[in-house]
Amino acid sequence: MKNTTASAALLILGAVLAPHAALAQGAPGGYPVGFGPNPALPEPEKSLIPTVNVAPVDRWTAQETPQPAAGFAVTAYARGLDHPRWVYTLPNGDVLVAETNAPPKPDDSKGIKGAVMKHQMKKAGAVTESANRITLLRGLDAKGVAQTRTIFLKGLNSPFGMALVGNNLYVANSDAIVRFPYKEGETSISAAGVKVMDLPAGTLNHHWTKNIIASPDGKFIYATVGSNSNVAENGIDVEEGRAAIWELDLATNKARLFATGLRNPNGMGWEPQTKTLWTAVNERDELGNDLVPDYMTSVKDGGFYGWPYSYFGQKVDVRVKPPKPELVAKAIVPDYALGAHTASLGLTFYDGKLFPQNYQGGVFIGQHGSWNRKPHSGYKVVFVPFSGGKPSGPPQDFLSGFLDKDGKAQGRPVGVAVDKAGALLVADDVGNIIWRVAPAAAKSAAR
Description:
Elements: H1 5-17, E1 35-36, E2 67-68, E3 72-78, E4 84-89, E5 95-99, H2 111-123, E6 133-138, E7 148-153, E8 162-165, E9 168-172, E10 176-181, E11 194-198, E12 212-214, E13 220-225, E14 244-249, E15 254-260, E16 264-270, E17 277-282, E18 293-298, E19 310-311, E20 315-316, H3 325-328, E21 336-340, E22 344-349, E23 363-367, E24 380-384, E25 386-387, E26 390-391, E27 396-400, E28 413-418, E29 424-428, E30 433-439
């Protein structure tokens, strides 16, 4: 197909009208299709024109909110932010918000496919210039709104993950981890950051979001780096150091690959009982409506999780050439599927005391929502209970209603965090809001 405006228009039209496949059978035990520890996976489908089904933006009015689970209430903790993607709670109760978007990446939008993707992402409200800052929110007034808001750090490079270790605040820019001096109670940092680790980036930077988390003992930083493609179609050489979680030793400043074959890991958290690292991973596209489910999984040191050669263990992706059967044989089956194309990004274990007992130790997942599935999937925050260090039941809708009755996106949930009082904070990068969810009867302050 020639690279012409007419051809691109036909591709867009055909993609939007592409029929969706029949749903696969759900897993036993009440799990929805594509969810749980043993999801029923259909055979892969391949079509000339991939499905494109982006939810257009129609942002919340001042009176509208998402729908919380029964017994909970939701308030807008902060409005009018600039594409808030990630949220992090400091020990003193202050809340940091990464207002951010993709950096320039000219080699990631070439050709017809790139043009279509850019058009559709603009429709979804995802193409805006990055604010490149972290904002600090403090306190909680009688209406559930942050009492103060200040610019904490500015001049960053598409920041995303944040982690405090002692008196050092680490920020994951799109291309590096940077360290800043932190003093409790300060509302801004003016000191220049010190780069402690380069992260894979460049002009082809397909998955630009880089998240970080500190180990419980503060000795290590773990960093997520997504792939540079869907299934290595740009060449395996541009995937060096990507589709992985890195471990950085803070004492020696030496880094190593901790786990690989994770197409696009984002959220990370330490499971409270076992202190095992878990992550949420976005899987590959263009194999059908119900392939491949995103997932969350415990992360094994040295573990390989399949990408790009296979998915969910040894299910070979025949699009990847040359194949690597020796790697496929080693691929670890993820612990828990989170639904196909849900864009499960945020992940936080609940360690607060404000919610009922059944939430203790479970995990909240921010599902940003699909752009290539009919019908839409995701566009909500789900809760998965845990027992004995493992998921113990089907997902439960905790914060939904981000799509209106006409299929338009009023918001899209991304990062999730627990505040000092035990409420759940949700970054909504289309609504430009941080939502706060607490029991309806709770009158606790944020700090």
